Amino acid sequence: MNTSARFTKELAQPLVSFTAFLPVDNDSPSHLSQHNASVSSVLRLPYERFWAQVLYSPSLLIFLDTYLRYAPRPFQALETENEQEEEDPILKELREALVNRVFRLILRLSTNKESSKDLMEIEEFSSIVKQHNILDLPKILDICVMFGGFNSGLVSKMISHLFKSCSWLEEDWDK
Questions:
Q1: What is the pLDDT of residue 169?
Q2: FRET label pair with 112: which of 6, 66, 80, 104, CA 20 to 30 Å apart?
Q3: 51 neighbors 7 (Cβ within 8 angstroms)
């Protein structure tokens, strides 16, 4: 069965609305809450609807790209905490929730198999990841910096799986 045929535009309906993650969002409880709600909504979707969202909702991939670009790095957060007064506990909780949700989103995007019935062939997965620019080398490097410190074992397994599944990543690395 052609797996991409399973991920139809109809399955993606209704599309979950995402907005780009901007640097100012780090200090906005309303923006952080909105991002948390969007990511949480997508994470709750069953396998085929999740991948349909990824393929047919350009705002999801724009959010992911801008989050990886503009979210504070762990070492930046430490510098800020040392330089300033006590951080707002609501902002801190919203940021931590978003970090955890985005990490779970990335984990889901980086695997072709969630269960024995929810899976796609490696070749199809690789093609989808490349064709839709879901994960590329700059994003992978950002993922390592942002999430490797608090879950190095899982990040390492995820990156290893991506390089084994997507041979074009190694070719890009060699360039």
A1: 84
A2: 66
A3: yes
